[in-house]
Amino acid sequence: MTAAELQLVLTKHLAFLRRQNGGVRASLKMRDLSHMDLAGYDLTDADLSGAKLFGTRLTGAQLTGANLYAADLRLANLERSDLRRADLRGACLRGAILSEAVMSDSDLRDGTIMHVRKNGEVALHEFEAIDVHTEMSVATIRAADLSRAKLSNAFVMQTDLTDAILRGAKFIGANLTNSNLTGCDLQGADLRDANLSGAKLNGANLTGAELNATKFANADLVGVIMDEQTRRSANLTGAILARSVGESGLDVPTVLAEHATWVDSHGKKGIRADLSGLDLSGQDLTGANLSAALLHCTVLKGAKLAGAFFAMADLSLADLRDADLTGADLRGAAMERATLSRAKLSGALVGPVQIQSGSGRLWSANLQRARLDGADLSRADLRRAILNQATLVGADLHETRLNDAKLVGADLTDARCTGAVLTGADLNEAKLVGAIGLSPAR
Predict the structure, then answer these.
(1) DSSP one-letter string for 175-219
(2) How far apart, in whole angstroms, are the C-alpha atoms of residue 40 and residue 34?
(3) How many of the other CB atoms lie within 10 Å of CB of 437?
(4) What are phi and psi of 13, to 5 degrees?
C-alpha cells in the first residue's frame, strides 16, 4: 500500500468516526504497512486484522477497539498509544515498544491461524485450526496500563513491564519467564498456572492476586507486597525472598554502632550499614542513625522508626507499610517506588539536603512512584520533593509543606490538603478528584 492510498483510507475513516458523508471504516486487514509513520493517527475501531506492521511508528495513535487480530507488530513503536479494548489475539509484539500505552480491557489471548481465500475473505483453515499464542517476548511495556487485560497463555518472556498497571489482568497460563515486573501493580491479577520463573518482582504489589500453581522458581520477590492470604496460597518454593535477621547472620545493634562510627568519621572509620533485602518487620529502631545507609528492598513493615535519621539513605523499593516515621529525618532520601501505605510521617523532614557545605547545592528527596495511600503526612516538610506518579490516595496532607514539589501525574484522589502549602508545586496531570482543600482546576 502506498502512502497516498493509505492517506485516502485514513481520511475516509476519520469522516466515518465523525459520522460525515462519505465516511468509511478503515479496512486494512492483511495489508503491509511495515515501517510506515502512523504516529498520532486516529484508528479507533479500524480493522487491522492480519496486517503487517513490522517496525511501524504508531506513537500516540488512537487504536481504541481496533481489530489487530494476528497482526504482525514486531518492533513497532506503540509508545503512549491508546489500545483500550483492542483485539490483539494472536498478535506478535516481539520487541515492540509499548511504554506508557493504555491497554486496559484489551484482549491478548490465543488466536487462531486463518486462511485467506481468493476473494479476500478470511476463514478458518479447512483441515484444522492452528492455535497461536500472543507473542510479547522482549517487548518494552514500561508504565503501561493493562488493567483487566486478558493475557492468558500469552508469551511475555524477557519483557520489561516495569511500573506497569496490571490490576485484574488475566495471566492464566502465561509465560512470563525472566520478565521484569519491578514496581508493577498486580492487585487482583489472575496468575494461575503462570510461569514467573526468573522474573523480577521487586516492589510489585500482588495484593489479592490469584497465585494457584504459579511457578516462582528463582523469581526475585525481595520487597514484593503481598497480603497474608495471597502469601499463604502461593507456592514460593525456589523463590528469592527477603532474608530474616537470623538468616543474614547480622547483629543489628552492631551494624548500627559501626554505621554511627562511619557517619561521624565521614567514612574514615566504621562500616556503612547495608540492610538491603532484609526483613526487619516490626523492629524498634526509634531514633536510630541510618543516614546514607543502604536499605534497598528492605522490609520495614510496622517498624518503629520515629525520630530516626535516614538523610541521603537508599530506601528505594522498601516496604514501609504501617511504619511509624513520625518526626523522622528523610531529607534527600531515595525512596523511589517505596511502599508507605498507612505510614505515619507526621512532622517528618522529607525536604532537600545541602550536599556540599557552603555550595548551596540541594539534593531533593526522591519519592517518584512511591505508594503513600492513606499515609499521615500532616505538617511534614516535603519541600522540593520529587513525587511524580506517586500515589497519595486518601493521604493526610494537612498543613504539609510542598513548596516547589514535583507532583506530575501524582494521584491525590480524596487526599486531605487543608492548609497544605503548594507554592511553586508542579501538579501537571495530577489527579485531584475529591481532594479536600485543593481546587480541581489547579
Answers:
(1) B-TT-B-TT-B-TT-B-TT-B-TT-B-TT-B-TT-B-TT-B-TT-
(2) 16
(3) 12
(4) -65, -40
